[in-house]
Amino acid sequence: MKRGIIIIILLLPISILSQSEILDQYIKEALKENLSIKATELSIAKQKSRAEQARKLWNPNIDLSASYLLAQGGRNLVFPIGDLFNPTYATLNQLTGTENFPTDLENEKIQLTPNNFFDAQLSISKPLINSTIKYNQLIQQELVNLNGVDVKLTEQDITYQVKTAYYNYLKSIEGINIINENVNLLNEVLEFNKKLIKYDKATIDILSDVEIQIANIKTQGVQLKEQQDMAKALFNLMLNKSLDTEILIDENIVASLNIETRSIAELYKQALSNRVEFERIKIAQNISNLNVERINKSKQPTLGINAGIGLQTEEFNFDNGGPLYTAALGLSWKINDGGLRKKQIDEIKIDQAILNNQNAMLKQKVEIEIVQSYLALQSSLQQIENQKSIIKSAQKSLDIIRTRYENDAALLIELLNAQNQLINGQLSSAVIKYDYLIQKALLDKKLAR
Q1: pLDDT confidence of 3, banded at 50, 70, 90?
Q2: Which residue segments constitute the domains of the chain, with CATH numbers given?
Q3: Which of 44, 226, 238, 391 has the least CB density, counted as fewest CB within 10 Å?
Q4: What is the mean pLDDT of residues 301-315?
Q5: Edge-to-edge strand order for the sheet containing 323-332?
Q6: pLDDT surpassing 90 at residue 97
Q7: CA–CA separation, 436 vs 253, rounded Å?
Q8: What is the mean pLDDT of residues 376-387?
Q9: Confidence category of residue 258, pLDDT binned at 50, 70, 90
Q10: Which residues, in sequence order, are CB contacts of 79 under 8 Å at separation 6+?
Q11: Phi, psi of 122 (to 5 degrees)
Q12: Cβ distance 124 to 306 under 8 Å?
């Protein structure tokens, strides 16, 4: 881990926010490794497969079927050969005076279920006109686009979360550095007091106040260390890394802060143009329109073609089972559906009204969010300006009181109070700076940048 001391910028110029290459790289890693994005990408892959399946419904289907049947018993078909021909043949024999015609023919019983029967069919079918297939294909593609919007939303949210976690981590480190620097300053005071005791210019009890002050400040440092460890674990969790993985520090990330020069109206206009939530509603409206068209087109007939070649034979006598050729056109036309289509369209129109209402509500929500973020940024910038004066005055006061204390012209309590004011001012400055960056990241998210 890069553990250089972060430069504490107490007097911040109000200019453009610098972009961090380190943070940009972390964001790329988070977007690549984040499990939520991977899950959404898998959903997209699944939906693309469905869209491809819908397209392939236009392709010809080729089916091969074959069966071989053995049968014994069951119903019989009685063919009255004897009843039909014996009387006729007997009459012919009488007329001719011969016995050339048999008169003992028996009636035939033919088994209805064929025995030792082989049947094979190869068929090809293809839809020619089918509005259901057409609109299902278009709707499935729109659903692919809808999943793409979900990815964008997830990416924006993760980018904001990574920035926030990184800024909170840097905030805790800067706070710890402030604590350590002030502990060092108090240790110098402690050493100075020890010299006073050594030369009998002060009593030993004077050390207690300084030691208590050092202990209190170190307690703040322990709390900040706990916040740092939590921020570190959360940040690494977003990158799908081990929670104790070291984090690179960008020491120049708060090199400058920026006044947002654009008006609220300009920011709102950009948000309306960029926010993918509006794209989601638009896609939902497209799907709704396609469903209306699909239902209206279902009034039209569907047409398909089917052709085949087959072979049917008993006892594998192929000379007697010649090829069987078939070709057919299939037409289906639902002339009257009892008003079902109309009711389906009425329901879709209600869905469209809901989407329009959601669009209007989203515009109101975006406007409120932009106003809140803009005002929060302006407030943070004003606090930064105020904090500059506070720190400058606290540092000047501490320098004066310390000089007076070393010349036995000020009380220790005055020195410790001045030191406290400087510490609190520095910690507040660190908090405000990074809170500004977090507010800026939130505005970027609301602007879909």
Answers
A1: very low
A2: 21-59+129-299+337-446 (1.20.1600.10), 77-110 (no CATH)
A3: 226
A4: 88
A5: 61-69, 117-129, 302-314, 323-332
A6: no
A7: 12
A8: 87
A9: low
A10: 107, 108, 109, 110
A11: -120, 115
A12: yes
Mean pLDDT value across the chain = 85
297 and 333 in contact (C-beta within 8 Å)? Answer: no
Strand 108-111 to 117-129 pairing: unpaired
Largest CA distance in the chain: 169
The structure tokens 């091969």 sit at: 64
Token output for 425: 């001012």
Three-state secondary structure string covering the chain: CCCCCCCCCCCCCECCCCCCHHHHHHHHHHHHHCHHHHHHHHHHHHHHHHHHHHHHCCCCEEEEEEEEECCCCCCEEEECHHHHHHHHHHHHHHHHCCCCCCCCCCCEEEECCCCCEEEEEEEEEEEEECHHHHHHHHHHHHHHHHHHHHHHHHHHHHHHHHHHHHHHHHHHHHHHHHHHHHHHHHHHHHHHHHHHHHCCCCCCCHHHHHHHHHHHHHHHHHHHHHHHHHHHHHHHHHCCCCCCCCCCCCCCCCCCECCCCCCHHHHHHHHHHHCHHHHHHHHHHHHHHHHHHHHHHCCCCEEEEEEEEEEEEECCCHHHCCEEEEEEEEEECCCCCCCHHHHHHHHHHHHHHHHHHHHHHHHHHHHHHHHHHHHHHHHHHHHHHHHHHHHHHHHHHHHHHHHHHHCCCCCHHHHHHHHHHHHHHHHHHHHHHHHHHHHHHHHHHHCCC
What residue type is 44 in one-letter code?
I
- Spatial distance between the Cα atoms of 445 and 439, rounded to a whole number of angstroms: 10
Please state, in angstroms and rounded to a whole number, the distance separating the CA atoms of residues 442 and 164. 9
Higher pLDDT, 257 or 129: 129
Which tokens sit at 58? 């236009």
CB neighbour list of residue 201: distance below 8 Å, 6 or more residues apart: 408
Task: Report the distance separating Cα 127 and Cα 243, nearest Å.
Answer: 57
**Cα–Cα separations (whole angstroms), residue 78 to 112, 143, 302:** 10, 62, 44
Tokens representing 410?
């000020």
d(CA 45, CA 63): 29
Length of the chain: 449
Confidence label for 431 from pLDDT (cuts 50, 70 and 90): confident
Yes or no: say if 211 and 186 are a contact pair by the CB < 8 Å rule.
no
Closest CA to 387 of 342, 352, 422, 343: 422
Closest by alpha carbon to 331, among 370, 313, 305? 305
Instruction: Using the predicted structure, report yes or no on whether residue 322 has a pLDDT greater than 70.
Output: no
